[in-house]
Amino acid sequence: MARMSNLEDDIFSDLSKYEARAMHGQLPVVWDKAEGATVTDISGNTWIDLTSTIFVANTGHAHPKVLSALRSVLDKPLLHTYTFTHEFRRNFLKKLIESTPEYFEKAFLLSAGTEATECAIKLSRMYGINIRKDKKAIISFRGAMHGRTLGAEMLKGDPKSEEWIGYMDPNIHHLEFPFPNKGRPSFESDIDKLLNLKKLDPKNITAIFIESYIGWGAIFFPKAYVQAIEKFAKENDILLVFDEIQSGIGRTGKFFAYEHYGVTPDLVCFGKGISSGPPLSGVIGSAKILDIPETGSMSSTHSANPLSCAAGLATLEIVEQEKLVDQARHKGNVLHSELNRIRDRFSDHISYIFGKGLVAAIITQNKEGVPDKELATKICNYCKSHGVLLVHTGRESIKIGPPLIISEEMLRKAILIIEEAFRIMCEE
Ligand SMILES: Cc1ncc(COP(=O)(O)O)c(C=O)c1O
Description:
With 428 residues, the protein is an alpha/beta fold.
């Protein structure tokens, strides 16, 4: 059982006094150190980390090569250059373009994932209106997570966001996500209904945004559904934009998760795991699209910070040298077969196991088959008290996303603790 010290009590009480509560929400652990797949708090308690700090530490926490890359920048010293350039920026971008498919020719670098979304929205709009002035509609999926800034919130199509924003972009339209319990999905019929409802000409659509899997539940689209989206997009000169901010950099057993669908995107947003810690995000695509905005017209103060770029290069090298994509696939097989075994054991309380590779979500339900978010919270709390950190989504899902370097032994140990949590919560 984890101990809590006076210092932790003080920190939590000061945070509740000084920090906006919208920043709270995760389990109460004051991180002190994180290495490999382990987190230590300021009282010396340790946890197996199944969060990767929300899908950032794909290479493991504080990988020695990332630390040494950061030190090489600090020791120069060089902390910031604004739009002046530096060699780390060239090195990272060159490696990124060379290690991704040839249809990605250029990238735009930013800091937060949500900025990458905004950048992709702007590129999509500029692409469309350059073809014809009415080509500016964007289609996205209701409930997808693309970030917290205005454009990203509008893509989500959540009525709660509309309340505080005060309006919705009339050129953003939403499709419902084809959840597996909603019958046989057909993109053709979904898009037909939307076009009729909104009196929308497909020629006026400029982009379709896809979160590679629905974040809260790690739920992938049916492959045929995404292939039908691609066909429709190609027929109507519409950009296919994938949000890989969470799903990218090896997480799902492919470098980018869109590869599972056998399609070719025009733009991909990346972030989180790309730099193993320091803020780095971006959009990658063809030169034709990336070079639409004028020189200097999309600058951002912290873009391509030397520390972030050095960490980004080290991350790409680690992914390649340690074959992290294969590691995610192999250990993902262990994770998913074990979670499905647990699902079979507690089938009254677990409706689905979703995900691929080293991302998974356990979807909880009560005996009446109703989503059970209290159970999900109890499991997360039990695991936190017994040495395992899980992603607490605040809804009926428990998300699991360990660093891709986690040992199979550690992964199995963590899974047994999750199973024990279900035994205690469901059988007692
Ligand atoms: C799929 C996806 N897109 C965008 C974002 C936003 O990224 P950031 O929090 O870095 O702005 C997130 C963050 O959770 C995400 O999961």
